[in-house]
Amino acid sequence: MTAKSSSADKVRRHRENKRREGMRLVQFWVPDTRTEAFKREARRQARLINEHPGTAEDQAFIDAISAPLEDE
User: Fold this and answer.
1) Residues 58, 61, 66, 72, Cα dihedral to 10°
2) Of 21, 22, 25, nearest to 11 (Cα)?
3) H or E, element range at 29
4) Hey, where are the domains in the chain?
5) pTM exceeds 0.85, yes or no
6) How many CA atoms lie within 13 Å of 70's alpha carbon, on the beta-carbon side?
7) Cβ distance 48 to 41 under 8 Å?
8) How far apart are CA 45 and CA 52, in angstroms?
9) In the 8-state DSSP scheme, what is residue 68?
């Protein structure tokens, strides 16, 4: 048995075991946050948010609803 088929067999068995456990495999694509293009776009959007007139009020609201309750 080759290393490749051995690895493929291990993956197949692992997936079969997970399915027997009631799990299902889900795969999806997400943005690559390591790229310079992503970083540039994130900075651009952050700058736009920071420059928006309602940002301080919005952040105050988020802070108010995110604060832990003292009674708990």
Assistant:
1) 180
2) 25
3) none
4) 3-66
5) no
6) 1
7) no
8) 11
9) P
